[in-house]
Amino acid sequence: MPRMSQNPPSLRPDLAPSARITADTRAGQPTIGMVSLGCPKALVDSERILTRLRAEGYGISPDYAGADAVIVNTCGFLDSAKAESLDAIGEALTENGRVIVTGCLGAEPEYITGAHPKVLAVTGPHQYEQVLDAVHAAVPPDPDPFVDLLPASGVKLTPRHYSYLKISEGCNHKCNFCIIPDMRGLLTSRPAKAVMREAEKLVENGVRELLVISQDTSAYGTDWKDREEKFPILSLARDLGSLGAWVRLHYVYPYPHVRELVPLMAEGLVLPYLDIPFQHAHPDTLKRMARPAAAARTLDEIAAWRETCPDITLRSTFIVGYPGETEAEFQTLLDWLDEAQLDRVGCFQYENVDGARSNALPDHVPEDVKQDRWDRFMAKAQEISEAKLAGKVGQRMHVIIDEIDEDGVATCRTKADAPEIDGNLFIDEGTDGLSVGDIVSVEVDEAGEYDLWGVRA
Question: How distant, in Å, are the alpha carbons of 20, 141, 455 from that of 59?
Answer without folding.
Answer: 15, 10, 42
